[in-house]
Amino acid sequence: MIHDPELASALEPGQLSAAAEHPLPRRKLGRGVLGLLILLRVYVVIAIPIVGYAFVHALLTPQ
Amino acid sequence: MGEAVLQQGGVEVVGAAGLTREDALRALDRKRVLQTRSAGRWLRLLWLLAGPGALVMLGENDGPSMVSYATAGATYGIGFFAPFILLTFLMAFVVQEMTVRLGAATHRGHAELIFQRFGPFWGYFAMGDLVFGNVLTLVTEFIAIQAGGLYFGIPPWLSVAIGVALVVCSLALRRYATWERTLMALAVFNLLFVPAALFAHPSGAALAHAVATWGPLPGGITNGFMTLVLASIGATVTPWMIFFQQSAVVDKGLTTADVGHGRWDTGIGAALAAVAAIATLVAAAPLFENHVDVSSFASGADFATALRPLLGSTGATLFALGMVEAGLVAAMTISTSSAYALGESIRHRHSLNLGFSQGRLFYGAAIVSTLVAAGIVLIPGAPLLAMTLTVNVIATLLMAPALLLLLLLVNDREIMGRWANGWRTNLAGGTIVGAIALVGAAYGVITVFPDFLGK
C-alpha cells in the first residue's frame, strides 16, 4: 500500500479507475438519428452476405 | 516514490487518494508530462505524448493492407492508387483525431461510451461488428506473418507460433508505457517498404503525374477495381482503429490539455503510414509493368518471391520482412483493441497497466483471440489471399455505422463540452460516412450484377 497524495494529484478525478464505476447517463436518441442508425444497420446486414457470396463465388470459379 | 516500489510483488497499490496499481502507473507517466509541460519543452512533450496515433496508423498498415496495396500496384500500377491512398490517410486522420478528443475529454473508451450513452442494444451491435472484424483481421495478420516466414523457408507452424509468443510477451510487460514504446520501436520497421520501393527505381515524374491526374487507370472501373478501392479504404479506416486509439488515449492518460500533441501524434503517424503504403504500391508496380498475373497468388510471400527477379534479393527480402512486421504489430494492437472493448462493454477492468491477477479477463481476451486467429491460419488449404482482400472489404462496410456512432458521440456536448465537433469536422465526417456507404453500395451492385460495368 502506497500513500502519495502528490502522485494522485497528477491525475484528473475522471482518470481514476474508480471513476469508471459511475456510468454516464443514457442519452435519448431522436427519430432522425435512430432512423440513420437503423438504415446503416440494414446496410451492413445486406452488404456482408454479398461480400460472402463474392468470396465463395471467387473460390469456386476456376482461374 | 520509484516505479520499482509500485511494482513490488505485483500487489495492488493504493495511495492516499485510493490509487490502484493502474492509477499509480498512469499517474507516474502524467507527472512526467506535467513537469515537461511546465518546463516548456515542446518536442520532449510530443515524444512523451506520442503513441496512440502513431501506433494506430502504423498498426493499420497491417498484413491485409500491405497485400491490398501490393495487389493494387501489381494490377493497376501507381496511377490511380497513389493519390487515392493519400486521400484515404487524410480520411483516417479526420476520423482518428475525433477519437483523441473523445478519449481526452471523457476519459472513457469507445465501447464504454456507446453502451452508456446509447444503451446495450446499439452497444452490442457495435461490439458485434468489432469482434467480427477483429477476429477476421487478426487471422489475416497471421497470414502475413506466415507468408513472410515462408519466404525465408520457415515452416508456417513455426512462424505462427513465434508470432503468438511475441504477442503474449508484449502483454506480459504489464505496463502501458513500456508496451507502447516497444510497439513503436517495432512499428518503425513498417518503413522497410521504402527501401524496397527504391529497388524498383521508381520515376519521380510518374509518381508526381499520378498524384496530379489520378491516372492512368488501365482497364477502367471493373468489379476487381472496386474490390481494390474498398480494400484500400479498409486498409486505412477500420472500426478497430476507433476503439483502439480512444482506449489507448485513456490508458495513457491524455487530457484535454494534450489534444494538440495528440493531433500531431496522429498526423505524423498518418504521414509515415502513407509513405509506407505508397512505397508498397511502388515496390509492387514492376509486376504490373512486367504483366505478372497476381490473381493466383496465395499470400504475401508470393509477392516477395515474384519481386525477387525485379527488385533483386535485397529488395524482395525487405518486402518479406515488412510483411512480417506489418502482421506482428497489428496482431498486438488488434488483440489489445478487442481486450479493451470487451472490458469496457462488460464494465470489467481494462488496462495494460493491470497486473495479471486483476487483469485476467483483459489479458485472457487478447490471448484467446490471438490463439483462435493463429489456429485458423494453420487450416490446410485455406484461401489466404482471397481472405486477406475480403477482410479489408468487410472492414470498410462495417465502418459506416461505426463512424456514425463516433460522430454522434463527438457531437454530444453533454460529455464533450467545448471539445465537441465544429461544422467543418462534421462536414468532413459526414462526407466520409456517405462516401464509404456509397462505395460499398456500388460494390454490392457490381457483385450482384457483374455485367453492370462490363467484365
Describe this structure in words.
The complex is a heterodimer of chains A (63) and B (455). Chain A is mostly helical and 63 residues long. Chain A has one domain (5-60). Chain A is 54% helix and 0% strand. Chain A has two helices and no strands. Chain A has helices spanning 5-8, 31-60. The mean pLDDT of chain A is 84. The model of chain B is unreliable at 1-16 (pLDDT under 50). By secondary structure, chain B is mainly α. Chain B has two domains: 13-49; 53-448, Amino acid/polyamine transporter I (Up-down Bundle). In chain B, helix 4 (52-60) runs parallel beside helix 15. Classes of the chains: A mainly alpha (63), B mainly alpha (455). The interface between A and B is large, with 43 and 64 residues.
**How many separate domains make up the residues of chain B?**
2
Radius of gyration of chain A: 24 Å
Question: What is the overall pLDDT average of chain B?
Answer: 88
Spatial shape of chain A: elongated
Note the main sheet of chain A: none
- CATH homolog superfamily of the largest domain in chain B: Amino acid/polyamine transporter I
Name of the CATH class of the largest domain in chain B: Mainly Alpha
Taking pLDDT < 50 over at least 5 consecutive residues as the criterion, the unreliable ranges of chain A are: none
**Proportion in helices of chain B:** over 70%
Task: Provide a quick synopsis of the model.
Chain A is mainly α and 63 residues long. Chain A contains two helices and no strands.
SSE order and pairing:
The complex is a heterodimer of chains A (63) and B (455).
Chain A (H helix, E strand, L loop, with lengths): L4 H4 L22 H30 L3
Chain B lengths: L2 H5 L13 H18 L3 H8 L2 H9 L2 H14 L4 H26 L3 H9 L1 H32 L4 H16 L4 H12 L5 H6 L5 H10 L9 H12 L4 H14 L6 H31 L10 H46 L14 H18 L6 H27 L2 H4 L6 H26 L7
Helix pairs in contact in B: 2-3, 4-10, 4-14, 4-15, 4-16, 5-13, 5-15, 5-16, 5-18, 6-12, 6-14, 6-15, 6-18, 7-8, 7-16, 8-9, 8-16, 8-17, 8-18, 9-16, 9-17, 13-18, 13-20, 14-16, 15-16, 16-17, 18-20
